[in-house]
């Protein structure tokens, strides 16, 4: 005969076992680069986060910033613009899809653009930051 | 995690200071000490948030000491509303058969910690709006109406309830900046708090025959939340705080404590926390309160009970809407389509998308297993089980209506939101399954 709660306990045990199975064991020994390294949102989020976080110290407060992807991806541009609003709180982040040419800085997530959109400020495997004019 | 992250997180235990005056009242002596501490933290979080909303409404800048002092004063005010009578029965020091459920719950909590540490449970919504807004509010030392009114930031939903952004802003003021990583760790930390408190809340004042079922139900609810949180990436967003408030609120409504005014007031503050955390907290609270007063109508005084259960949530929400009206930002919640103009032609698509979204989250196990546990226990449940079940029905109806209440195909929206917004259901199923009748077999 089932005791009180024994079915729930069995269900809890199955779910706890599943939670252990869902741990990304291969990544546990590694220090994550970003909080999104292994999330379902994937590497696209992690690389955008890492680049914008690293760019924050190099972009002066009050500067206008445009964030674009290379190769161009308008959907991803939209997400990255929102990331930039969060990760560059002192900057004036241009709305996604707006003209990047009159921004003080251009953050390019992905490959180095050609031709260069300005003077290279910073580059990482995640992308590059360019100064278009002195803010 | 960095020192700044630890500093950011260290603010959250201090929220219990605001809830402590209420929870230290002898009327709550029937709740085990650890559960009382967690409930003090949850009530404190709701009190601190409403305090911050009041300060924003009055144009008074936020500071950590001022907010905490005002919230503690509010907590003493709430204590003054508690009558001396109430369940004073001390909790049993030992829970029969509590070790195995605790071990199972601890395993799930540990898994949630490890997944968060590996960066696999973080929500992009933390960056999109929760954290971005909080960071700005911390810099402005108030709810920044100009920021919320910026048309390019319309995706941040100015009207969205304020508790998470208020508390994140307070932590950011204390730490000097927001900690994105720290925020993601609130998922396993609040899950730990829930795992520690839930068995105690469910067994508070309850007959001893219920303690083992309560412990099992707690473990089931915690394990289901752990899997959903890890699979649907809730780290840093509003889901885990919402689940903490909702679960604690329902657990209190199921407890004999809520036969007393003190228990009703405490449950009211838990539901106030839910209502001010996410929009779906409102239909949850409304259905839970309605179900409670209907099921318990013979053992409670209807009017006063309704007031104690509903006033904290109503006052908290009305203060937020008053802020929206004063700043001309919003007058209530906004939908994406014309309100009350649903598109029933999308019903089939929506149901299929919901099924698909839930099936892709832990192979649907965190939803199905609690449902199966409920079905197994269905014929032996007492009337109290109707409280979480009616709440589940009300929440499901609201979510389905919301998905249909906009003109376009809701499939994409459902795909990324349904696993999270339906996450209270398995908790409600688990808590229902613990409500076995006195004459039910097993022991």
> Tell me about the biggest sheet of chain A?
5 strands, mixed
In terms of structural class, how would the helical and strand content of chain B be classed?
mainly alpha
Helix/strand/pairing category of chain A: alpha/beta
Straight-line N-to-C gap of chain B: 45 Å
Q: How far do the termini of chain A sit from each other?
A: 76 Å
Spatial extent as radius of gyration of chain A: 21 Å
Q: From the structure provided, what is the oligomeric state, counting identical versus distinct chains?
A: heterodimer
Give the strand order, joined by hyphens, for the main sheet of chain A: 2-1-3-5-4
Could you tell me the radius of gyration of chain B in angstroms? Answer: 21 Å
Instruction: Tell me how many strands of chain B there are.
Output: 0
Overall pLDDT of chain B, averaged? 92
Largest interface: A-B, 46 and 71 residues
Write the layout of secondary structure elements.
The complex is a heterodimer of chains A (135) and B (443).
Chain A: H1 6-21, H2 43-56, E1 64-70, H3 74-87, E2 92-93, E3 105-110, E4 119-124, E5 127-131
Parallel strand pairs in A: 1-2, 1-3
Antiparallel strand pairs in A: 3-5, 4-5
Helix pairs in contact in A: 2-3
Chain B: H1 3-14, H2 16-23, H3 33-58, H4 64-80, H5 99-117, H6 125-140, H7 145-148, H8 163-175, H9 180-184, H10 186-203, H11 211-232, H12 239-254, H13 261-275, H14 281-295, H15 302-326, H16 347-359, H17 365-377, H18 386-404, H19 411-421, H20 424-433
Helix pairs in contact in B: 1-8, 2-3, 2-4, 3-4, 3-8, 3-10, 3-13, 3-15, 5-10, 5-11, 6-8, 10-11, 10-12, 11-17, 11-20, 12-13, 12-14, 12-20, 13-14, 13-15, 14-15, 14-18, 16-19, 17-20, 18-20
């Amino acid at each position: 005969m089932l005791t009180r709660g024994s079915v729930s306990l069995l269900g809890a045990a199955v779910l706890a076992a599943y939670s252990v199975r869902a741990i990304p064991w291969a990544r546990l020994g590694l220090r994550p680069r970003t909080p999104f390294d292994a999330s379902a949102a994937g590497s696209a989020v992690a690389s955008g986060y890492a680049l914008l976080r690293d760019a924050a110290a190099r972009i002066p407060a009050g500067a206008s910033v445009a964030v674009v992807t290379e190769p161009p991806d308008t959907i991803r541009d939209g997400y990255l613009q929102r990331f930039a609003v969060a990760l560059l709180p002192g900057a004036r982040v241009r709305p996604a899809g707006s003209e990047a040419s009159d921004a003080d800085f251009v953050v390019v997530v992905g490959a180095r653009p050609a031709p260069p959109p300005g003077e290279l400020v910073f580059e990482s495997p995640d992308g590059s930051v360019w100064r278009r004019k002195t803010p | 995690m960095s020192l700044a992250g630890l500093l950011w997180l260290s603010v959250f235990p201090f929220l219990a200071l605001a809830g402590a005056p209420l929870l230290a009242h002898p009327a709550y002596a029937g709740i085990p000490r650890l559960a009382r501490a967690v409930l003090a933290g949850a009530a404190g979080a709701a009190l601190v948030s409403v305090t911050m909303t009041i300060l924003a409404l009055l144009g008074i800048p936020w500071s950590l000491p001022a907010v905490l002092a005002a919230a503690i004063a509010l907590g003493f005010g709430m204590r003054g509303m508690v009558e001396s009578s109430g369940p004073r029965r001390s909790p049993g020091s030992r829970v029969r058969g509590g070790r195995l459920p605790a071990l199972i719950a601890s395993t799930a909590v540990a898994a949630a910690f490890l997944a968060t540490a590996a960066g696999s449970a973080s929500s992009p919504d933390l960056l999109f709006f929760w954290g971005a807004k909080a960071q700005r509010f911390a810099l402005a030392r108030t709810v920044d109406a100009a920021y919320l009114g910026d048309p390019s930031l319309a995706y941040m939903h100015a009207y969205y309830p304020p508790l998470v952004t208020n508390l994140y802003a307070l932590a950011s003021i204390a730490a000097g900046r927001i900690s994105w990583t720290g925020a993601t760790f609130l998922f396993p930390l609040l899950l730990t708090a829930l795992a520690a408190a839930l068995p105690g809340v469910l067994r508070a004042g309850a007959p001893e025959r219920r303690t083992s079922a309560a412990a099992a139900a707690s473990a089931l609810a915690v394990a289901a939340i752990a899997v959903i949180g890890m699979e649907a990436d809730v780290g840093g967003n509003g889901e885990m705080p919402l689940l903490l408030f909702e679960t604690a609120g329902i657990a209190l409504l199921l407890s004999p404590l809520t036969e007393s005014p003190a228990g009703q007031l405490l449950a009211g503050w838990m539901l106030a926390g839910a209502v001010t955390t996410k929009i779906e907290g409102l239909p949850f609270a409304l259905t839970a309160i309605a179900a409670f007063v209907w099921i318990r109508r013979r053992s409670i005084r209807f009017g006063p009970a309704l007031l104690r259960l509903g006033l904290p949530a109503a006052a908290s929400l009305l203060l937020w809407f008053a802020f929206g009206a004063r700043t001309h930002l919003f007058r209530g919640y906004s939908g994406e389509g014309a309100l009350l103009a649903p598109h029933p032609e999308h019903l089939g698509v929506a149901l299929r998308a919901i099924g698909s979204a839930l099936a892709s989250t832990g192979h649907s196990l965190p939803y199905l297993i609690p449902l199966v546990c409920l079905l197994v226990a269905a014929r032996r449940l007492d009337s109290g089980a109707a409280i979480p079940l009616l709440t589940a029905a009300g929440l499901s109806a609201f979510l389905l209506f919301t998905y249909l209440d906009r003109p376009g195909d809701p499939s994409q929206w459902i795909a990324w939101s349904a696993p999270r917004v339906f996450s209270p259901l398995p908790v409600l199923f688990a808590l229902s399954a613990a409500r076995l009748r006195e004459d039910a077999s097993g022991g």
